[in-house]
Design goal:
Length: about 280
């Protein structure tokens, strides 16, 4: 039996992913989301359609470091095993700060997932073959330099546009690569991926007319879940780590995403601000 921990699991790619995992049968799926109210119907649907699957809900606002620590402590206290962590929750096009004073896009897409991964890593090390999957994006190709200001606390929010989103997705790829280096020789492997341009609610913060038009040209959530599912479950990936995937196969990253020194610096800076 495999236990999957999926963030942002009550909508979009996350919901499609947990449904695909449930269809495999016999596993345990932990849905980590902000809202009990919005997650309850998902849990009910999963139990109805896939009675052999065990499901669990954990309250998690990945943008809030206190919430991340509380969720990790709750899970560890139950001695719940974790085989696969999928850092799926994401957002873009925002104009607000997290409870810790970070830009909410950086907090949701990188800072929170980084801390969550570090806190759950000891449990993942105990798994027969632990996996950490970062849902990134080909948007990282458009990031031409690292914006370290995204890791600084602020007092006044500013609009976070596609450029900031692209930097956070670059961070996802670099995080997976550096983590692979740090856990080399263990039973834990890491992956980052591009799910495709998906009509999910990741851009829920931008004006609705723009969302409607953009989604006309995007993939379904089910199609977007295929590569995360591949990274989370494919047996052949058990012997590789730190690589990037698209359309269920290994793909190239941007030159910046291959910078080992940049990956180490990102790790050290993020470790400092999260106290992890």
């Amino acid at each position: 039996m495999t236990t999957y921990f999926v963030t942002g699991a009550n909508s979009g790619i996350g919901r499609a992913l947990v449904e695909a995992l449930a269809a495999r049968g016999g596993d345990t799926i932990v849905l980590a989301t902000r809202s009990d109210e919005r997650t309850r119907p998902v849990l009910t649907d999963l139990k109805s359609r896939f009675p052999a699957v065990r499901t669990q809900w954990v309250h998690l606002d990945v943008s809030d470091l206190t919430s991340v620590r509380r969720a990790a402590q709750t899970l560890i206290a139950t001695k719940q095993p974790i085989d696969v962590l999928v850092n799926n929750a994401g957002i873009g096009g925002t104009r607000r700060l997290s409870n810790d004073g970070f830009d909410i896009t950086y907090a949701t897409n990188h800072i929170g997932p980084f801390l969550l991964t570090n806190l759950l890593l000891p449990r993942l090390r105990e798994a027969p073959q632990g996996r950490i999957v970062n849902v990134a994006s080909n948007a990282h190709f458009t990031a031409k330099e690292m914006n370290w200001s995204g890791l600084e606390r602020r007092t006044t929010p500013k609009r976070s546009g596609f450029k900031d989103y692209a930097v956070t997705k670059l961070m996802n790829v670099l995080h997976a690569k550096e983590l692979a280096r740090r856990v080399a020789g263990t039973r834990v492997t890491t992956y980052s991926l591009h799910p495709g341009a998906v009509a999910s609610n990741i851009w829920r913060a931008i004006p609705q007319p723009i969302q409607w038009i953009a989604k006309l040209f995007m993939l379904s959530n089910e199609a977007g879940a295929r590569t995360p599912l591949y990274c989370a479950t494919a047996p052949e990936l058990g012997t590789v780590s730190g690589r990037y995937y698209y359309k269920e196969r290994e793909a190239r990253t941007s030159p910046l995403a291959q910078d080992a020194a940049l990956a180490r610096e990102l790790w050290e800076r993020t470790e400092a601000i999260t106290g992890s």
